[in-house]
Design the sequence.
């Protein structure tokens, strides 16, 4: 029996009713393109509406997430996945939820408890520390040293800007052959999160205040692809039983081994699988240039591009072979795949033919550009990609044949801008700014400007902010960079920020037009979101940024700046997590 069946059967034995997966495309939620979690279709019931199947539910929900699209090709990322979930709608709460999770992992899946570790909410001014969950875990046999208390960024979950929310407890597994540490360090990547139990007892109102919900609910989520890889002891999800037969089919088609060709085969397998599920959805999505249709088109065309790289004859029926294998694998659980098989195969076939014609037009466009220009600038390179589906590698290859240069760095910047806009559109709105205006958040917001300035000095002027997130516990800052920072680079950045703080630099605000701000070289993320008259913040002579604030009046107010972690955020983007200490 597979893990999905084991999960459903276990929770049915505990009085839960299995409910069918909702469609991938939300039926009554225009704010998002796809269902991204098991709880999403259940929000009305988490808010108090009565579910016709009762107050104990479980399912495997079809989900699509696009935030990590560019990461697909590594060992762990997927665009489509199945989320195993169980819910209590005003029935049981923390004790029962934790007991069920522990029992399933250790008794049913036989995972050794020594390899488990836990995070719980550490508490803040608004919501108390989750001692109840910690005590439950201790009673299950989890040692104090394997329990970490973290803040809202890690252990508080919300359905959106407003709506049901609450603290959570996350379960981690030691996914390494090395000896299990006696103490849990949540920043150690060898600890992999496998399950999240959310205790929804609050509702965030439109004014961002929090009130208690009429009933306390439990919402849990466990990604099937990840837990299968953990149980089967593989470090590459695509070598687990979920994927291996599809990968073998691609090996047969390409007559190439998986080893050495992993990225292309993973992308083909993932993108064709997601395309199959989107095409089979009741929403009847077809490839287009907008919304879900744009995503479907992008996935199919990206799979085709990587098929070309693996020397697959694009005009052959390679896509049909892979799609039929996927349908056969999943039709028992999702009969709509078999019912819609002809439609799915037709969509793949027609989009493949359209893309081939588009590539031909793209080649003509390239030839036209090559006759007029001596190099391919970033705008042209991105136009070839966005309009004709030319990957930058193809543009570069064609340019080399003519001894032309390509602004690859500029192209990557345009790509990042495009991805950010896509994420914004997918979310239905721009989520930016501060979660609040507390004193510490104000300090962190100012510190992001200093960090941005320091990174430019250490890494170069073409380093720019790509995103940020601020809580009362820490700041998170994303920036474009093509390499992991060395210890020396991190030390230099940290020292520079602390020097800026020690210099007691004044922070001043000037109101000006957007045009004037750009002319003086003021930094800005998403310039289009700002009004025609805006604020530019100047920090001494080192920083000028378009920003909504708030900020401190002088850098000396910030305290000591300390980098806690530097890691990859996405392709070509790094992330720094830092704190301000007294």
Sequence:
């Amino acid at each position: 029996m597979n893990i999905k069946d084991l999960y459903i059967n276990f929770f049915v034995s505990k009085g839960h009713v299995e409910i069918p997966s909702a469609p991938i495309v939300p039926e009554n939620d225009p704010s998002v393109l796809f269902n991204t979690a098991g709880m999403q279709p259940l929000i009305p019931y988490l808010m108090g509406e009565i579910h016709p199947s009762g107050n104990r539910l479980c399912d495997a929900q079809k989900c699509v997430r696009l935030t990590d699209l560019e990461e697909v090709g590594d060992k762990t990322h997927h665009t489509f996945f199945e989320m195993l979930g169980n819910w209590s709608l005003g029935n049981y709460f923390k004790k029962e939820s934790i007991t069920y999770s522990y029992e399933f992992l250790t008794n049913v899946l036989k995972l050794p408890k020594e390899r488990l570790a836990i995070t719980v909410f550490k508490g803040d001014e608004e919501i108390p520390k989750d001692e109840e969950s910690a005590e439950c875990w201790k009673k299950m046999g989890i040692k104090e040293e394997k329990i970490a208390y973290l803040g809202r960024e890690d252990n508080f979950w919300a359905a959106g800007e407003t709506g049901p929310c609450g603290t959570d407890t996350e379960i981690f597994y030691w996914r390494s052959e090395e000896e299990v540490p006696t103490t849990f360090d949540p920043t150690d990547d060898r600890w992999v999160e496998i399950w999240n139990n959310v205790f929804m007892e609050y509702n965030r109102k439109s004014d961002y205040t929090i009130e208690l919900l009429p009933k306390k609910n439990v919402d849990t989520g466990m990604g099937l692809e990840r837990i299968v890889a953990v149980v089967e002891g593989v470090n590459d999800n695509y070598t687990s039983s979920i994927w291996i037969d599809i990968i073998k089919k691609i090996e047969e088609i390409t007559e190439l081994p998986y080893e050495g060709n992993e990225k292309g085969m993973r992308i083909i397998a993932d993108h064709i699988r997601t395309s199959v599920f989107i095409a089979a959805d009741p929403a009847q999505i077809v490839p287009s240039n907008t919304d879900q249709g744009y995503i479907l088109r992008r996935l199919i065309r990206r799979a085709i591009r990587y098929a070309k790289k693996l020397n697959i004859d694009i005009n052959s029926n390679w896509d049909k072979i892979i799609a039929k294998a996927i349908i056969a694998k999943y039709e028992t659980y999702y009969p709509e795949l078999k019912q819609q098989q002809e439609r799915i195969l037709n969509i793949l076939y027609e989009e493949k033919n359209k893309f081939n014609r588009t590539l031909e037009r793209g080649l003509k466009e390239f030839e036209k550009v090559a006759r007029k220009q001596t190099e391919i600038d970033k705008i042209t390179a991105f136009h070839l990609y966005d309009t004709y589906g030319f990957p930058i590698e193809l543009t570069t290859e064609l340019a080399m044949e003519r001894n032309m240069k390509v602004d690859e760095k500029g192209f990557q910047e345009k790509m990042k801008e495009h991805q950010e806009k896509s994420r914004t559109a997918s979310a239905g709105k721009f989520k930016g700014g501060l979660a609040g205006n507390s004193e510490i958040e104000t300090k962190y917001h100012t510190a992001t400007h200093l960090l941005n300035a320091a990174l430019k000095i250490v890494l170069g002027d073409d380093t720019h902010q790509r995103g940020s997130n601020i809580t009362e516990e820490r700041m998170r800052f994303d920036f474009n960079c093509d390499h992991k920072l060395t210890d020396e680079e991190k030390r230099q950045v940290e020292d520079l920020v602390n020097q800026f703080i020690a210099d007691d630099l004044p922070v001043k605000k000037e109101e000006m037009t957007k045009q004037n701000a750009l002319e003086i070289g003021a930094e800005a993320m998403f310039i289009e979101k700002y009004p025609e008259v805006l604020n530019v913040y100047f920090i001494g002579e080192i920083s000028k940024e378009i920003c909504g604030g708030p900020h401190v009046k002088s850098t000396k107010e910030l305290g000591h700046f300390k980098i806690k972690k530097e890691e990859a955020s996405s392709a070509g983007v790094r992330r720094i997590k830092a704190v301000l200490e007294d």
